[in-house]
Amino acid sequence: MTSKDRFSIIPISSLFFAIAFLAVGYGMILTFIGVYLKESDSSNIAIGVINAAFFLGAIGASIFSQKIIATVGHIRSFATFASVMIIGFLGHSLYFNEIFWAVLRLLSGFAYYGLLIILESWLNEKSTESHRGKILAVYTIIFYLATAIGQLILNIGEKESHIFFIMGSILVLFSIVFISMTKIKEPILQPFERYSLPKIFNIAPLALASSFIGGFFVGGFFTMIPVYIVENFNSIEIVSIFMTVALIGGLISQWPIGMLSDRLGRRKVIAYSSFFIAFVSVCFILAPYHESLFYLFGALLGFGIFCLYPLAVARANDIVDENKNILEISRTLLFAYGLGSFASPLIIGLGSYFFDHFIFLSFLILSLFLGFYSLSSERVADEDMSVFVNMPSVAGAEFPHLDPRQDNL
User: Fold this and answer.
1) DSSP string covering 185-203, please?
2) Residue 138 near residue 126, CB atoms below 8 Å
3) What is the DSSP string of 291-307?
4) How sure is the predictor about 409, in pLDDT bands with cuts at 50, 70 and 90?
5) Mind listing the pLDDT tens digit for each residue in 372-406?
6) Phi/psi of residue 74, nearest 5 degrees
7) How does the entry describe its membrane topology (predicted)?
8) Distance (Å, rounded) from C-alpha 336 to C-alpha 213?
9) CA–CA separation, 25 and 147 (whole Å)
10) Side-chain-facing half-sphere of 407: CA atoms under 13 Å
11) Which among 381, 211, 406 is positioned nearest to 325, based on CA atoms?
C-alpha cells in the first residue's frame, strides 16, 4: 500500500471502527429479537409485525433524518441517534409487550439508518475519485464480517435476554466514542429528493424489481429465518452458526458474481442467481434436516440473495444515459429495497401461519418470477455496460453517493 493509499484510509479509520461496532450490535439484536419472541410463544404474525416496524423506521429515516442531521450537525446527530438506539435496546429488557416492542423496533430502525446516513455521508466527503472504490470495498467487507461476528456472539455467555440487550447497547456506545473523538470535517448533506417508483419502473423495470425482491429476501433472512430455525431445531446455537455462514457466503459472492456479470451481463446473472435461489429454497423445503446440510444450504442461500441488490444497481447504471439522474435512480432503488425488507416479515409472518415452510415457498415463487422476468428483459450491449460494484447488505440513504460509478457521470 502506497503512502497515498494510506492517506485515504487512515484518517477515516474512526468511521470504520464505528461502522464495525454498530454492525456487530445490529446483527446480534436483529437476529435475537425473532428468537426471543418465538421462545416467548409470540405468533409468527406478531413477530412479523414487530420486525417490520424496524424497517418502517428505516424508511422513515431515509425521509426525515437528513433534516435533523443538517440542523444540528453530524456529531450531535450521531450521539442523538445512537442514544435513541440504546434506549430501544434497553427498553426491550425492561418490559415485554408486543405493541411496546414494535414501537421500540420502530425507533431502533429509524436511529440505526440515521446513523448509517451520517457515516456514509462522511465517507463520501472524504472519498476521492481514485479511492472511492477501495473505501466502498472496505466498508462492504467490514459490514459483512462485523454482522457475522454479531451472530457468533449469540453463543457467548448466558442466554438471558437482558444480557444481549446490554451487550448491544455497549457496542453502540463504543461507536459513539470513536465518532465523538474524530476530527473529520462534517460534510453538508444535500436536500432530500423525492422518490418516484413509477418513473424509475419506466426507466429500469428489471433493476427496480430486483431491488424490491432482493430487499424481501434480505429482510426475511434477518428477521424470519431465525424464527424458522427455532421452530425446527429449537437451538440458538444453530441460529448463530447458520446466520454466520450465510453472511460469509454473501460476502464471498460479491466478487465472482461481479466478475461474471461484467462478462455475461446483469440480465443473465440476475436470472441465474434467481434460479439458484429457487433451487436452494426447494432444498430447504424437501431435504432432511441434518445440521451440516442445513449450514451448507445457508451458505448457498447467502451466496444467492446478497448479490441481487448490487446487480440491480449495476443494471440501472447500464441502461441510463447522461440525461438521466443516476443518483435519483440509485436512491429510488434503495428505497424499493427498503420496501421489500419491510414487506417481507409481514408477508412471511402471515403466510407461515398456514404453511410451516412458507418463508422458502415465498423465496421460491419470487425467485422464479424474477428469473423468468429477467430473461424476458431487454439485453444491454457490451459497450454500454458499467462496472459491477460490491455493496453491503444494508445501506443508508446516502449510500448512492459512495458508488464510484457516479464519478463518471
Assistant:
1) PPPPPPPP----HHHHHHH
2) no
3) HHHHHHHHHHHHHHHTT
4) low
5) 999 998 888 766 777 888 888 888 888 887 877 76
6) -70, -45
7) Multi-pass membrane protein
8) 9
9) 8
10) 12
11) 406
Distance CA(389)–CA(114), nearest Å, equals 23
Spatial distance between the Cα atoms of 119 and 231, rounded to a whole number of angstroms = 37
Question: Any residues with CB less than 8 A from the CB of 360 and at least 6 apart, and which?
Answer: 281, 282, 284, 285
Determine the Cα–Cα distance for residues 378 and 375; give it in Å rounded to an integer: 8
At a CB cut-off of 8 Å and minimum separation 6, what does 2 contact? Answer: none
- Which candidate, 177, 162, 178, 146, places its Cα nearest to that of 28? 146
Whole-angstrom distance, CA of residue 304 vs CA of residue 250? 7
One-letter amino acid at 280 equals: V
- In angstroms, the CA 183 to CA 270 distance is 42
Q: For the chain, how many residues are written?
A: 409
User: Domain 13-182+192-382+394-408 has what CATH class?
Assistant: mainly alpha
DSSP assignments along 81-126, one per residue: HHHHHHHHHHHHHH---HHHHHHHHHHHHHHHHHHHHHHHHHHHHT
Letter for the amino acid at 117?
I
pTM of the model: 0.93
* Distance of alpha carbon 388 from alpha carbon 399, whole angstroms: 15
Residue 115, Cβ neighbours under 10 Å: how many? 28
φ/ψ of 337, rounded to 5, equals -60, -40
Taking the C-alpha atoms of residue 125 and residue 163, their distance in angstroms, rounded to an integer, is: 37
Copy the grid coordinates of residue 90.
Answer: 434497553
In contact, 147 and 24? CB cutoff 8 Å: yes
Burial class (CB in 10 A: 0-12, 13-18, 19+), 50: buried
Cell of 198: 413509477
Distances (CA, A) of 137 to 27, 140, 234: 19, 5, 36
Q: Position 33: which residue type?
A: I
For 126-169, the pLDDT digits (tens) are 776 667 778 888 899 999 999 999 999 988 755 677 889 999 99
